[in-house]
Here is the input.
Amino acid sequence: MPISTGPPGLYTIDGILTGRLDVTLDALRHLAFPALALAMSGIGQIMRITRSAMIEHQRRDHVQTLRSFGVPGRVVTFRYLLKLSSIAPLTIMGLEFASLIGNAFVVEMVFSWGGFASAGLEAVMQKDLNAVMAVVLVSGCFFVVANLLIDIAIGFLDPRLSIKEGR
Here is the structure.
């Protein structure tokens, strides 16, 4: 059986592939509120953890040394403190990814935007075991890949936490 060469059915990608920028922009405009609804659930916790990490790192000796040498506060904050303080929030973001997958069911139902989560909910309602297993498998793969990417990002931010050769 030949592979379909038509558009994939995702409006953002369909608009890009067919050269219709208006379709892509319209799809992105319609994705704004669902994306905002998904992001709002964990953003407060991430902000709180980032703030407490920033306060904790401000008291360290190397930050005090930078300030005593006259490095501007904005440079200290954005170049040094934010890099040091982003490790804990990144870890929480990896854990929050699972709740985003779970909350996608509700958001897709509220905004009437059919997607992967609503297809999974429909499979559960119809007791289609194969489709349910596929949804769980793909969701698990997304979760594993997201956590792997976050672990790699943390390794770049703080090489002391990554695995060293010879240990």
Summary: DSSP finds seven helices and no strands in the chain. The chain has a mean pLDDT of 82. The two ends are 51 Å apart (CA to CA). Residues 98 and 143 are 6 Å apart (CA to CA).
